[in-house]
Amino acid sequence: MADADDVRRLALALPHVVEIDSEGFDFRVADKGFVWSYPERAPGRPRVIRTDIAVLYVGDEAEKQALLLGEPELFFTTPAYDGAPLVMLRLERVDVDRLTELVTDAWRMRAPDSLVGDLDPDEDSAEPSAIA
Predict the structure, then answer these.
(1) pTM exceeding 0.70
(2) CA pair distance 34, 39, nearest whole angstrom
(3) Exposed end of the chain (fewer CB within 10 Å): N or C?
(4) With bands split at pLDDT 50, 70 and 90, how would you rate the model's confidence at 9?
(5) CB within 8 A of 119, min separation 6: which ones?
(6) Beta strand 17-19 with 48-57: parallel, antiparallel or unpaired?
(7) How many other β-carbons are positioned within 10 Å of the β-carbon of residue 129?
(8) How far is CA 38 from CA 55, 114, 116, 132, in A?
(9) How many CA atoms lie within 13 A of 28 on its CB side?
């Protein structure tokens, strides 16, 4: 239900976000990535950038496991991400409201405290407004 264009629109509407030039999408706040296209790697084959799958920063292992176990139809991981606070999200299986929540939460966890105050409090429940 969601796609790469939704990720781009939501991420760029958050304060102080920069999009890094890439084959897919790659968004940062204060030089820290919070959502990007999944770089799928298969043995013996070149890396493929998957814009139908978003990699999201989730903060810690407990949150990662909660998402993976609670919503396996949406989230997955690979051995390459073992020990990293990251999950992969199947965009075609998530609605835009949930994507908004996930992207905003990832931004909030990566943004320095000095920038978090720039996030409109209403953005937790609605699509972010354009703030740059």
Answers:
(1) yes
(2) 15
(3) C
(4) very high
(5) 14, 15, 104, 107, 108, 111, 128, 131
(6) unpaired
(7) 11
(8) 6, 29, 26, 26
(9) 9
Chain centroid to CA 55: 5
Q: What mean pLDDT is reported for the chain?
A: 89
pLDDT tens-digit readout, 73-117:
999 999 989 999 999 999 999 999 999 999 999 999 999 877 766
Distance CA 91, CA 10 (A): 13
Query: Amino acid letter at 44?
Result: G
- 54 and 88 Cβ atoms separated by less than 8 Å: yes
Average the pLDDT over 2-31 and give the result. 96
DSSP reduced 3-state for 39: strand
The Cα–Cα gap between 7 and 100 comes to 8
